[in-house]
Predict the 3D structure of the following.
Amino acid sequence: MNSLPAQKTDNQTAAKTYLALGDSYTIGESVAESERWPMQLAARLVHEGIPMKDPKIIAKTGWRTDDLKAAIEADNELLESYDLVSLLIGVNNQYQGRSVESFAPEFEELLQIAIKYAGGKKENVFVVSIPDYGKTPFGAAKEDQIKKELDAYNKVSKNIAKKYGVAYYNITPISRMAKSYPELIANDDLHPSGKMYTKWVELFEKKVEKMLKK
């Protein structure tokens, strides 16, 4: 009778830790907590036999790169290092009219911070591209401008990820499916639905799984 609690403790000790850094897309604005993509990813990894603790999410709707950095620095509950760290940031820099030139050094600094919290292991970090909200009802009026600007932002983040040898997952093409498939948009007519987040996770789940099994 005493073996079950002991086994549970062992599993908890062995469970992988995951830090997800971002903005509204990472916190899952307008979807249930279980539908957030970091939560979906963790659940799939558990299903594949990788014990996972609940993701530690530092993300809030409206955050720019500088907001995220300030929040990380102010968080007193962060572990010294995590087995997995993800970074998705930049849409609010673009939305608020910040230049892509100003975004570049701030994103690079955040990626350095992400690597630090992965215990210095760049192979345990991944970047997710910024989705294209111009394909939503909210952004439709400026669809072409949004596409052009976000393509520039994503080019910068991809190049910086490559510079540091960090995996980069391009979910932007999936986000653009929302124009034809309304079910991929949340009820707020702006953010992804749980179904879209599932498609994101399906894109990189196996690669993240391999990452954690190395």
Notes: Residues 1-13 have pLDDT under 50 and may be disordered.
